[in-house]
User: Which sequence fits this backbone?
């Protein structure tokens, strides 16, 4: 059994990850929050035996094998490095860090310490995206030429706050959502992005220099081009992922979501066919793979290297939107 400590008394841990850890056979033994009262209340609410306020106390706890980091983005690097130095495996929220140098240092430290570092890119665990990936690999649409991602949603009030008003914490829609688009596209296409152009928008939700919506295009190594639209401000849009090839198209609807839902339709010369889907909890799938990786059986669903790739793309989109130029995507791995 893998025993977990939570770094951050977060909403995502409460709503998704604690349950997934337990469903995958793990145990949550401790939570760290810098606010003692918040941490104790969170522990009581979620059936966690111990709450601490100090990072070192959590990562050096011999009862803990792995940590889940879901603090604000600027804290990820130091918290990951502390956990790795203590010999703990790490599942870290995206983006891994705010700079590529920091993200690469996290990956290198984990590799040197012989511990698992995973990025919590949940979407690649969806039955819909796995069906798209399988269909692309099987050649059912021929050579992929283009893709489109619709990932504009409404950021609910309980998740607002630092995402909208703290650039120093990595707020804004690009490092929150566009990184997920990148990881999902890399997963379904078996291809890597090399260049991005983008325009960002201030629709009135985010403050200061932060963007609350963005549209852009990424070019991939194969020559495929992918459009993306990400936002915090659209309450009535659906999400989707399309991949268009030389002999067919794959159309996923309501698939850019934490929920195990959505449909995938194959369109080709024979007509339209809905692909069979075995919907399962995305986070439970991720935690099962992580526990197996800790046991030396395979890799986590999204590795630290995957997290570096998505951060590289996110930072390129930020720069492209800022400058109006096409920006190279260079993870430096």
Assistant:
């Amino acid at each position: 059994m893998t025993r977990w400590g939570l770094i951050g008394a977060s909403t995502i841990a409460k709503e998704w990850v604690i349950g997934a850890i337990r469903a995958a056979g793990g145990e949550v033994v401790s939570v760290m929050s810098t606010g003692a009262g918040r941490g104790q209340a969170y522990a009581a609410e979620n059936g966690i035996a111990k709450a601490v306020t100090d990072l070192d106390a959590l990562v050096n706890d011999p009862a803990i094998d792995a940590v889940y980091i879901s603090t604000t983005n600027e804290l990820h690097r130091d918290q990951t490095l502390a956990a790795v130095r203590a010999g703990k495996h790490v599942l870290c929220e995206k983006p891994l860090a705010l700079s590529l140098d920091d993200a690469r240092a996290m990956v290198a430290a984990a590799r040197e310490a012989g511990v698992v570092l995973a990025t919590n890119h949940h979407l690649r665990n969806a039955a819909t995206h796995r069906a798209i990936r399988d269909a692309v690999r099987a050649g059912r649409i021929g050579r992929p030429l283009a893709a489109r991602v619709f990932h504009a949603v409404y950021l609910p009030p309980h998740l607002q706050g630092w995402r909208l008003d703290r650039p120093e914490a990595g707020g804004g829609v690009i490092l929150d959502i566009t990184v997920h688009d990148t990881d999902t596209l890399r997963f379904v296409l078996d291809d890597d992005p090399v260049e991005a152009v983008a325009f960002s928008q201030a629709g009135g939700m985010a403050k200061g220099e932060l963007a609350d919506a963005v549209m852009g295009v990424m070019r991939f190594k194969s020559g495929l081009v992918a459009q993306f639209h990400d936002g915090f401000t659209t309450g009535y849009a659906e999400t989707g992922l399309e991949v268009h090839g030389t002999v067919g198209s794959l159309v996923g609807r309501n698939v850019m979501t934490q929920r195990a839902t959505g449909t995938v339709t194959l369109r080709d010369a024979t007509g339209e066919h809905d692909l069979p889907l075995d919907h399962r909890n995305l986070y439970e799938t991720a935690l099962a793979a992580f526990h197996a990786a800790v046991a030396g059986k395979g890799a986590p669903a999204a590795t630290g290297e995957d997290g570096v790739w998505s951060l590289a793309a996110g930072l390129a989109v930020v720069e492209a939107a800022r400058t109006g130029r096409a920006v190279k995507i260079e993870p430096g791995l």
The two ends are 32 Å apart (CA to CA).
